[in-house]
Design a protein that fits this description.
Elements lengths: L8 E5 L3 H13 L3 E3 L7 E4 L11 E4 L8 E3 L5 H12 L18 E2 L2 E2 L3 H11 L4 H8 L3 H15 L4 H10 L6
Parallel strand pairs: 1-2, 1-3, 3-4, 4-5
Antiparallel strand pairs: 6-7
């Protein structure tokens, strides 16, 4: 893969002239050149859905529908936009906050709940067939704490038993045997 140039050629596609001016200003502040969509841009910055085939990877600002190489929050700074444009130009994917998970609550990745490192250790102990007491000795915690983590695992994984929790952990590649 070739190196990303210090100054990128960025096409700005926006829902209206005011938004286009604001985004073009952010691109210019990032040190890049604003070009037309037809001028073979290195990347595209948009706040709107792009219907046609894109001539370059695009970064969407805001919660825009569509498949983009990059997504940033509506309040993204020039520095964040610069980093995202450089990343997508280098072939990387950029993901900002999701519109569906902007509040505090359970963290979920790709539809699966995120387990804490300790929960993963407890799940691994379960996969080794250890009792709560044996898992507690291995991990240097109390049996009560192991029980607490197992209850949390059951809830997060949607499991009704130790065996089902282990099976789901294996299926989701959280643990290995």
């Amino acid at each position: 893969m070739s190196a990303v140039p210090s100054r990128l050629r960025i096409a700005v596609v926006a829902s209206d002239a005011t938004a286009r001016s604001r985004l073009a200003e952010l691109v210019a502040r990032s040190g890049h050149e604003v070009v037309e969509l037809t001028a073979a841009p290195d990347a595209i910055l948009t706040d709107d859905a792009i219907d046609d085939a894109m001539p370059a990877p695009a970064v969407a600002i805001g919660f825009v529908e569509g498949d983009f190489a990059g997504r940033l929050a509506p309040a993204a700074t020039a520095q964040q936009i610069d980093a995202a444009l450089r990343a997508v130009t280098a072939g990387l994917t950029v993901r900002g906050p999701s519109p569906h998970n902007r509040n505090f609550g359970p963290l979920v990745e790709e539809g699966w709940p995120v387990l804490t490192p300790r929960e993963i250790e407890v799940l691994a102990a379960l996969s080794d067939g250890l009792s709560n007491k044996a898992a507690a000795r291995r991990l240097g915690i109390s049996p009560h704490t192991v029980k607490f983590h197992i209850e949390s695992l059951f809830k997060k994984l949607g499991a009704a038993s130790r065996a089902e929790a282990v099976a789901k952990g294996l299926k989701r590649q959280i643990i290995e045997i």
